[in-house]
Amino acid sequence: MAQQDGPTSPRKHRDPSDHRTTTVEKGRFCSAHCTCGWRGPARRARSLAREDAAGHAGA
Questions:
Q1: Are 32 and 21 in contact (CB under 8 A)?
Q2: Contact by Cβ (8 Å): 23, 31
Q3: CA-to-CA distance for 33 and 11, rounded, in angstroms?
Q4: Chain centre to alpha carbon of residue 20
Q5: 40: Cβ–Cβ under 8 A, 6 or more apart, which residues?
Q6: N or C: which end of the chain has fewer CB atoms below 10 A?
Q7: CA–CA dist 45, 7 (Å, integer)
Q8: How far apart are CA 7 and CA 15, in angstroms?
Q9: How confident is the model at residue 57 (pLDDT cuts 50, 70, 90)?
Q10: What is the pTM of this model?
Q11: Which tens digits make up the pLDDT trace of 2-45?
């Protein structure tokens, strides 16, 4: 029987280029969305939504 170490699938190094973020406006609110499925909180200030997106892409 083979011995397994760690999780069944290896963790990939997060490459910031894998994440494409945009901001989406809905009514008075703006939120950041990413191609990986992540979504930031709704913000009234577009600048804060952009900061959320930049923080996610650089994480």
A1: yes
A2: yes
A3: 23
A4: 8
A5: 31, 32, 33, 49, 52, 53, 56
A6: N
A7: 40
A8: 20
A9: confident
A10: 0.66
A11: 444 444 434 444 555 678 999 999 999 999 999 999 999 999 99
* CB contact set of 57 (below 8 Å; sequence gap of 6+): 16, 19, 21, 34
Question: Tokens representing 45?
Answer: 């200030």
56: phi then psi, degrees, rounded to nearest 5: -70, -45
Helix (H/G/I), strand (E/B), else coil: 18 = helix
Burial 13-29 (b: 16+ CB within 10 A, else e): eeeeeebebebeeeeee
Distances (CA, A) of 9 to 4, 5, 18, 19: 11, 10, 19, 20
Mean pLDDT of 46-54: 96
